[in-house]
Amino acid sequence: MSTPYNVAQVRSDFPILSRQINGRRLAYLDSGASTQRPRAVIDAVDYYETQLHSNVHRGVHTLSQLATDAFEAARERVRRYINATSTREIIFVRGTTEAINLIAQVWGGVTLQAGDEIIVSALEHHANLVPWQMACAARGATLRIAPIDADGQLQLDQFLAMLGPRTRMVAMTHVSNVMGSVLPVQAICAAARERGIATLIDGAQAVAHETVDVRALGCDFYAFSSHKLYGPTGIGVLYGREALLEALPPWQGGGDMIRTVSYQSATWNDLPYKFEAGTPHISGAIGLAAAMDYVESLGLKAIAAHEHALLQRATAALLQVPGITLQGTAADKGAVLSFTLAGVHPHDLGTILDHEGVAIRAGHHCAMPLMDLLGVPATARATFGCYNDNEDVDQLVRAVVRAREVFG
């Protein structure tokens, strides 16, 4: 018999949730932008900083060897978390944005030719849109946008019809950061693979909320950030199939990415180090590994079920507030609730909510083209994490009602 999800115990693991904001209990509903850190992650980083700190891969002394062991153990932890075949497929980067830029520039530089096509969805975050715009502009390729329906779901049939002989890459989000839509990634990757088309999945909004198995998904590249997975900022992961990464040239020069250097030339290190120039974010990798341990100790299925219940509660309650419009009503949806309140700009709404101790995101959410498609300048967005509870939801709804009263 499974143990019931104990959200009170989970909340106690996050020190920041005990503080007050504007004299009120903190209801932190901005995990889609950045999750809070549990004590286990804070302690893991602190232990490295106070007991292990040294540079990695470069020293024979004890601290360097211990730091290297911890750093490479973190890489193995990531490999297990996403079920990659080898640690050679795990590249540490600064985050999802850097991972996508790396592939857009390096893969795009050796692959794209004039007249080629890249397909993204209408849901994309700027981080999975602008790098491809830049790659297309540099190589004379064309960026095509796969449409969505009114609920925020990818129109799969129309996407499949877009795949053609000049399509070279399909780059799509796993879960929309605005509408919460969960895309049929496995079907997308299978269709692309059948046609010899490469795939990249932006997993920033997925890895903390569901089990990600890159081999089962069938993607060529998968990118995500630590700070949306209860880990430190400034570090993320690029997964790439080993054969593809092996065939690509380095992105940046210096540090660990070299094997030999002369005044005239250089040769490159093995994977994954070929793509990790300079001193890495060692404490970040160790913190990310601790975050993965923590999430798996709670159980991803249990977290997903808990967040879904909160999403249902919040959706039902907000729909009772006059003037509320939800943006994103897909049948398969992550823990993201975007909405507008008639007569109140989302920024003003966010300010009122902050006075009530409720932290949400308000704006275009780095998805300006999607806002234009929806016909709104911005939305208010509440996103849920493993530590949120029913009181957070109720506090959100009370604050929205209060905002409506303030603005008449």
Give the key terms:
alpha/beta, Aspartate Aminotransferase, domain 1, seven-stranded mixed sheet, four-stranded antiparallel sheet, 14 helices, 17 strands, 40% helix, globular
| Secondary structure: number of strands | 17
Q: What's the CATH topology name of the largest domain?
A: Aspartate Aminotransferase, domain 2
Q: For the CA atoms, what is the radius of gyration?
A: 22 Å
- Name the shape in a single word: globular
What's the CATH superfamily of the largest domain, by name? Answer: Type I PLP-dependent aspartate aminotransferase-like (Major domain)
Low-confidence stretches are: none
Strand content: 15-25%
- CATH class of the largest domain reads Alpha Beta
Which structural class best describes the helix and strand composition? Answer: alpha/beta
What is the CATH architecture assignment of the largest domain?
3-Layer(aba) Sandwich
Report the mean per-residue pLDDT as an integer: 97
Widest sheet: strand ordering = 4-10-9-8-7-5-6
Number of domain units: 2
Distance N to C terminus: 50 Å
Tally of alpha and pi helices? 14
Question: How would you sum up the major sheet?
Answer: 7 strands, mixed
Helix content: 40-55%
